[in-house]
Amino acid sequence: MRFKASVVVAILTGAIMLLGYFLPGIFFASVRDVMLRSGMIIGTVALLLGVGNLLQVHLRKIREQRPGHLYSIFMVISLFSVFAVVVLFGPAHPYSVWVVSEIQRPLEIGLMGLLAVVLLLAGVRLLFRRQALGTLVFFLTAFLVLLGTAPLPFISLPFLEGLRNWIAQVPAVAGARGIILGVALGATATGLRVLLGFDQPYER
After folding, report:
1. In the chain, what percentage of residues exceed pLDDT 70?
2. Residues with Cβ < 8 Å from 148, sequence gap 6 or more?
3. What pTM was computed for the model?
4. Measuring CA to CA, which of 59, 92, 167, 199 is 20 to 30 A from 126?
5. What is the dihedral of CA 3, 7, 12, 13, to 10 degrees?
6. DSSP annotation string for the chain
7. Does residue 34 or residue 21 have the better pLDDT?
8. What whole-number percentage of the chain has pLDDT above 90?
């Protein structure tokens, strides 16, 4: 069986990384740290390339006056403004912190609130289309969590807050841990297949 150079490099890299974690010694740990730093640098360069591609797409949209180009103008201005603030003053400066706390955080909170309402509406539509136990549980859970989180005028229902906390701390945490375990097992299986040369995603 003939091995390509890329397969050999991938297998050796994965083996050295595993040895750096499981074997005591300075050599493998040092090589592992160098590889990790190299991976971080490559990831940073890939992020910059992604930002450059996003900027190029929106600039082309602005130049050609496509529908929605006003949003592209706002995106480009926001990108350069935040980049200039962070570069000139640093990420820990009050101006940079203000951008995160007064602009980014409220936007994220608004999107999370919108996501909660959309989930509830999706549960209602699903309940009308398919009457099943799972659909009913999903709808009731979303409704109770939303009702226990949102402030109700002139009404105080402390048991709803306790129920919301129980749902968030017991079933939700159990489901999240199950998903994390599944992701970990899947990543381990995929890593072993790449390490043994059965899968070669770098050849595509």
Report:
1. 91
2. 157, 160, 161, 163, 164, 165
3. 0.56
4. 167
5. 170
6. ----HHHHHHHHHHHHHHHHHHS-SHHHHHHHHHHHHHHHHHHHHHHHHHHHHHHHHHHHHHHTT-TTHHHHHHHHHHHHHHHHHHHHH-TTSHHHHHHIIIIIHHHHHHHHHHHHHHHHHHHHHHHHH---HHHHHHHHHHHHHHHHHSPPTT---HHHHHHHHHHHHTHHHHHHHHHHHHHHHHHHHHHHHHHTTS--GGG-
7. 34
8. 8
107 is written with which tokens? 């936007």
Amino acid at residue number 118: V
Judge whether 46 and 67 are in contact, CB under 8 Å: no
Q: Which two tokens stand for residue 90?
A: 């640093």
DSSP secondary structure string for all residues of 16-57: HHHHHHHS-SHHHHHHHHHHHHHHHHHHHHHHHHHHHHHHHH
Q: 């701390």: which residue's tokens? A: 169
pLDDT tens by residue, 47-87: 999 999 999 999 999 888 888 888 889 888 988 888 888 88
134-168: per-residue pLDDT in tens? 777 877 887 777 777 776 666 666 777 778 788 88
Q: Which tokens hold the place of 151?
A: 């402030």
